[in-house]
Specification:
Length: 517
């Protein structure tokens, strides 16, 4: 049976320097009960624990426990927020405050915590003697991948950011171009060092599920290239993922968002959560605590009313888009009910309750749209109020790769070939063959079709606003976006990125605030 990796947290100590008449070396004394950077990195097991700590930064509030999905989702036209919490409410209204770094500031902090931990691995592991040199290579490959992933998020959300390549304290702010170049360089290095799977390796990580793989590194390299309009390079990267021959779409779309079907054939990289691992406390951030669990607060944050906080809801536009095209059998797109909980005339059950009966005495909720994706609504959970979801976050799916590949084919002049890869995603949910219903599309028509397909397939998975921004729609289609989602009326130029947290500006000399703030 495959073992899901258990993520340990490495405690990093610091030195307190004081001015006094005694010698400085007399003041610097290490607690014999606490590991230091000098004493820790001794053998292969230490190296493995070190890389596990880098994964650990994916699990706290700043990243995928809660904040990062919110930052990625709320600015899109597939979501809206009526949260009573201003910091969350204002994300989708492009009005995050420099005076209140809640959510976006926590994300920024945690990305750089992850980068710092990755840099510790990259600085210390090369000097450790390994009996298994392949294990050493894999650990370093994972460090490059994870540093690239954290930096990917940082530059994607915050534009001009520091690019730390060492564990030094201060790092100057770089341009987007410089940061993206480093992201791509890290993924490129990772590709050469990572295995396709851990099932066929020997060593301490043999059989581990959830670690970064060659496919994940190639896919993220392609995505970074796509975000920088390097269509030819991105096309080659996505084709490399496809040609690995290890990924395929699962038969049931729902399997991508439930605990029972984690790490499936469609998952290229996912963040590993578990109700069984660790303690029961949530990892809100800061210094790791022994009682922290490995669970997510995403479910309670997005949950339907009565089952969680309902801080995020789907837009009517998303619902209507699902209704535009029926399956070949004349049925509603099955992705609708996986994505959105609503008063379906054919019946809708969530958390063991009939939707129409549960909300019968509340007309506004009876006619509302709620998020169902990544909810524990199919099993025996009564609600999400214990804050502890164990559902893994699938942050790179094969369906996304297929659609990105189709986009690059279209952008590089091969619109006809793009049909095949779009249709693979449509076939899973039994939608008509595009070659029959929309033959001979132009490049622009195919682009519009791919945009539609991405909107539905990847709804509420943190992709939509990235697409809107990279396609230039904030300039060319802002009025259209406002019609689809009134929150776009608050958009101001520059607010497509979050502000650099004021603490970073105060503590890192020379750092400038992003335009628009």
């Amino acid at each position: 049976m495959k073992n899901k990796i258990i993520l340990y947290t490495l405690l990093i100590s610091g030195l307190v320097l004081m001015n006094s008449c005694v010698k400085e070396e007399d003041l610097v004394q290490n607690d014999p009960n606490t590991e230091t950077t000098e004493s820790f990195w001794q053998d292969a097991n230490d190296a493995l624990l070190g890389i596990n700590s880098v994964y650990g930064s994916l699990l706290t509030d700043g990243t995928y426990m809660r904040s990062t999905p919110l930052l990625l989702d709320l600015k899109g036209d597939d979501s809206r927020s009526q949260s009573p919490w201003g910091a969350m409410f204002n994300v989708g209204r492009f009005n995050s405050s420099i005076a209140d770094p809640s959510i976006y500031g926590w994300a920024f902090e945690t990305y750089y915590q992850g980068i710092y931990r990755a840099n510790q691995v990259l600085e210390n592991v090369p000097d450790i003697e390994f009996e298994n040199e392949d294990l050493k290579t894999r650990i370093l490959g994972q460090a490059y991948f994870l540093r690239g992933l954290y930096l990917f998020h940082a530059v994607d959300l915050f534009k001009n950011v520091p690019v730390p390549l060492s564990t030094e304290i201060y790092h100057e702010q770089k341009t987007q171009e410089e940061a993206w170049a480093q992201v791509m360089d890290d993924f490129s290095k990772a590709i050469e060092m990572l295995p396709v799977s851990y099932n066929d390796v020997s060593g301490l990580d043999a059989g581990d599920v959830g670690r970064a793989t060659k496919g994940a590194a190639i896919a993220y390299l392609g995505k970074a290239q796509l975000f920088n309009d390097q269509f030819e390079s991105a096309k080659q990267s996505f084709k490399r993922v496809i040609d690995l021959g290890v990924y395929s779409l699962v038969d049931d779309y729902k399997d991508n968002f439930t605990k029972e079907n984690e790490n499936n054939s469609e998952s290229i990289f996912e963040v590993q959560f578990s109700r069984e691992a660790g303690g029961v406390d949530l990892g809100w951030g800061g210094a790791p605590q022994s009682g922290w669990g490995k669970t997510s607060a995403r479910a309670i944050t997005y949950a339907p009313r009565g089952f969680g906080w309902t801080d995020v809801q789907p837009t009517q536009t998303l619902f209507d888009e699902f209704m535009k095209e029926k399956t070949v059998n004349g049925e509603v797109d099955p992705r609708l009910n996986v994505t959105i909980a609503w008063n379906d005339p054919n019946g809708y059950t969530l958390y063991g309750h009939d939707f129409s009966e549960f909300y019968a005495n509340n007309p506004s909720d009876l006619n509302a749209l709620f998020v169902n994706k990544y909810q524990n609504s199919y099993g025996d959970r009564a609600d999400e109020f214990d804050w502890r979801s164990g559902i893994n976050e699938r942050i790179m799916r094969y369906a996304d790769v297929l659609l990105m590949y189709a986009e690059t084919l279209n952008e590089t002049g091969n619109t006809d070939a793009a049909y095949d890869y779009v249709q693979m995603v449509r076939d899973r949910v039994n939608l008509p063959d595009l070659r029959e219903v929309k033959p001979n599309m132009t490049k622009q028509e195919m682009f519009e079709q791919i945009a539609h397909e991405r909107f539905l397939e990847l709804a509420l998975e943190g992709h939509r606003f990235d697409d809107i921004r990279r396609w230039g729609w904030l300039d060319s289609r802002l009025d259209w976006l406002i019609q689809r989602d009134p929150e776009f009326q608050f958009y101001q130029e520059g607010r497509e990125y979050f502000p650099i947290p004021q603490l970073e500006i105060d503590n890192n000399p020379g750092t400038e605030q992003n335009p628009g703030y």
